[in-house]
Structure formats: C-alpha cells, structure tokens
Amino acid sequence: MRRKNNAIYIDLENIPSGLDLKPLFEELTLQHNDSPEEENVFVIKMACGNSSSIKKLEKQLAEYNFTIRDTPSITTNYKNRADLIISLEALETIIVNTPVIDRYVFITSDSDFTVIMEALRKYGKEVYLVTKEMVSDKPIFNNCCDEILIIESFMNKPKADEPKSSSHSKAKIEEKPAEIIHTKKMDKQVETLMKRVVDSFDPDSWQLVSYVGVKFHQMDKSRMIERSSYHSLGNLLSKLEKENYIERKINEKGHPEIRRLPN
Asked: Residue 99 in 3-state DSSP?
C-alpha cells in the first residue's frame, strides 16, 4: 500500500470554535485518494493562534497530537503572525524534504494563505483548503488549491432540543423558505457550471461521463453539487437530458458518454 504523507495546518483565529476534528480527519483519511492503494498518514499537524483561540480547541488538538503555537497579538488591532508562521513552516518542508509531503491541508478563511498555497502547487504538491461556505466560492481560493471542503460540514452536532412549542414550530416554518431559496440558488449555480463544461466540448463528439466529471470538479472545487438538491453528477445530467440539453449513450466498452444537443 502506498503511503501518502499529509501536513495539516489550522489557523485557529479564522475558524469557528465548534469545529469537530473527528469527522474532518475521517473525511481526509478515507477519501480523496488517486487509488484504493493509497494510505493517508498525517505526519505534520500544527495549529497557530492566540491563547484564547487555542483554549476553544485545546482538548481536541491534544487528542490529535497537534503542535500548538501561541501567537500573541503584536499590534493594537490584534494582528498576529499566525499566517506567516504557518506559511514558513509549510515552505520549510519543501526545503528539508524529509518527510516528503504529498498533500497540504489548510484550515482557515484568511486569504493571506493563498500565497503559500500557490507556491506549494508550483512544486507539484496537492493543496486542500477547509474554509467557511460564505467564502468558499472566492476566485482567489478556487485558483490556488485542488479541492475545497466546507468547514460547516465538520461542526459539532447540536444537542437534541426539547419538544418544540407551537410558537417555535412556527419560527421553523418561517425559516424554511430561506433554506429553499439557498438550495435553488445552488441548483442554478451547478446547472450553469455543467452547461459551461458541456459547451466547452466539440458539439459533434461524445465525451466520457467520467471525463465530464473531472472537468466539472475543476470548476466546482467546493463541491456545491453535494449541497444542492441534485447531490450527484448523475442526477444533474439526468435533468439536462430531460431538458434536451444533452443526450446520453453507452459506448461499445460499456462506458456512459454524453454530447451536447444542437439548439
């Protein structure tokens, strides 16, 4: 089994205090490999922040054996050097090259980290970003990493509530339309992305669905499709097929293909 070395860095002051490291490590350990033969090993684990931000995750960080760096504020507006310290630590792994790091994971919402992320990719390294959903579609993030995970997917689950009163139920009903609007917006975004992918191909040629998926993922690094009502590439393609935007077939090798239908 091939060993895949990972380095994970947490910017403690730019993440929610409710982050649950267990599901995040499970996600990174079990998935996102090029082949089933790869084994993810976290050889570097580092977290930076001031003393108050360390306290919020201190127990979890200790359980996962993180190296913790206290970065007190150095200016009156609370600016510290966590981004610089983490960036230099990551860059040093390239210089030392022992152990060789295959994938770097940055947990932050600070765009200052895009500098080191871009530098690591120049060295052929795989770079992941775990960030807040509200900033996950920023071009600066999407253009300097290989995949974006949404930090809200790895938050502590709230405790079960007491039976709801009728007034509370009414409030829930009032909240639901906002959720529906958000989902519809995401549906529209993934539909637009897929149409752009399909339109980029030669209209007279068939494309393997697997290849279409790769091209789509390059544009959907934050995996919006999983949070949309489609949930999967197949469901999205079925929608476009019903709209007569594409047609599908199985080729002679038994692999699914699609092509754009003329207007």
From this structure: coil
Which CATH number fits the domain that encloses residue 90?
3.40.50.1010
Q: Which domain holds residue 127?
A: 2-154
pTM equals: 0.71
Residue 112 lies in a domain: yes
For the cut 80, the answer to whether the pLDDT of residue 136 exceeds it is yes
Residues 108 and 184 in one domain: no
Judge whether 159 lies within some domain: no
Nearest-angstrom CA–CA distance, 150 and 132: 6
Q: Which long-range contacts (CB under 8 A, 24 or more apart) does 50-59 make?
A: 50/12, 50/13, 50/80, 53/12, 53/13, 53/17, 54/12, 56/12, 56/17, 57/10, 57/12, 57/17, 57/19, 57/21
Q: pLDDT tens across 12-57, in order? A: 989 998 999 989 998 888 766 666 677 888 999 999 998 888 999 9
Q: Encoding tokens for residue 121?
A: 């990719």
Q: What is the gyration radius of the CA atoms in the chain, in angstroms?
A: 21
